[in-house]
Amino acid sequence: MGGLKPPSAEEPVQSGRRRRQRRRRLQPARRGARQRDPAAVLAPRSVPRSLPGVVEGRGAEPPRPEGAMAAPVPWACCAVLAAATAVVYAQRHSPQEAPHVQYERLGSDVTLPCGTANWDAAVTWRVNGTDLAPDLLNGSQLVLHGLELGHSGLYACFHRDSWHLRHQVLLHVGLPPREPVLSCRSNTYPKGFYCSWHLPTPTYIPNTFNVTVLHGSKIMVCEKDPALKNRCHIRYMHLFSTIKYKVSISVSNALGHNATAITFDEFTIVKPDPPENVVARPVPSNPRRLEVTWQTPSTWPDPESFPLKFFLRYRPLILDQWQHVELSDGTAHTITDAYAGKEYIIQVAAKDNEIGTWSDWSVAAHATPWTEEPRHLTTEAQAPETTTSTTSSLAPPPTTKICDPGELGSGGGTLTPFSIGVPVTLALAAAAATANSLLI
Prior knowledge:
Blueprint: H1 11-26, H2 38-42, H3 75-93, E1 100-105, E2 110-112, E3 123-127, E4 130-131, E5 137-138, E6 141-144, E7 153-159, E8 165-174, E9 181-185, E10 192-198, E11 208-215, E12 218-220, E13 223-224, E14 231-235, E15 245-253, E16 256-264, E17 276-283, E18 286-295, E19 308-316, E20 323-327, E21 332-335, E22 344-352, E23 365-367, H4 379-391, H5 405-408, H6 422-439
Parallel strand pairs: 1-8
Antiparallel strand pairs: 2-6, 3-4, 3-7, 5-6, 7-8, 9-10, 10-14, 11-12, 11-15, 13-14, 15-16, 17-18, 18-21, 19-20, 19-22, 22-23
């Protein structure tokens, strides 16, 4: 009967042999290549790894004996590590660990509690990592008397046995602000003006300023200066306005608040910057003159429409009194009454011709009037002095000095024995002999 033959007993053996041969052909040609053990795939995931292994990315695992089963990564261990990491992160970044910021007034007393710890809890306090003395504690609270600036810092409270961090306080010691000093000035008239402010005394803690500018009832924009944090600029909306400006400023910090305000007319705050490039030079062959030049301030926008007048002062360095000269126009002046050969100091100020106030003094210039060069002594003039000094030893001694006849009868003093010269003595002797002969 045609059809399929029943399987013989040898067919399972042949089919198994064929499978083994096919497996050998599929094996890698390189000897020692590691093969994946099918048993490893079926191994239970709870089997622990026999060797710790190397962290991924840091090196290869040590070679295993042929046929050894590769240990899988235990998922339970990963879960435990993840939980531990979460606990550590929570401890380090929990809201309790964030320091509490506290501001206290200079000279006051303060009590810092140790978070939610009981009053009789055993704790230790540190400031900036340094242990504090136990006598500063009142139970678990830290008590500080007469606060000084040096008391500012990070205070931390720890459990005494476990050193577990219980509480942190970032303490800032300072003062409330006093009334600020406010001023406004127009050095760029007619473009606009600026206002600046400062505190008369420091507060040692951050302050917040708020400036408001009103022109009548209209609020004006005050643009912050990019370089100076305590200055803002305002542009003029209407020139020659009779409406007053009002500028108010308030200051506040964690310990208090203060404010002030000023009101002014447009023309009263005009004040130019000092003149620039002041130079003084001597005038040749004029020992009492100095020529002074300067330039208008570069910040003054329109010197043609709004001209400036100038004020010059000068004095010699040896004197304290200034001399002054006011000039209606021009940027030069000649001093005609200087002391010859004396160094002078010169400064210049500026002001709008009609409104405002004088500027500050310029940078000082120094100059000395012209002086004639001294003439050197010639050798002929020095020769007699040399001859006199070399022949002074040949002068007659005092005993042979010839006196002036007028000195003899002057009666100016008593004559010493050898003060009369030899010729005079001989003349007196001859006169005495003549008198004797006449008597005989």
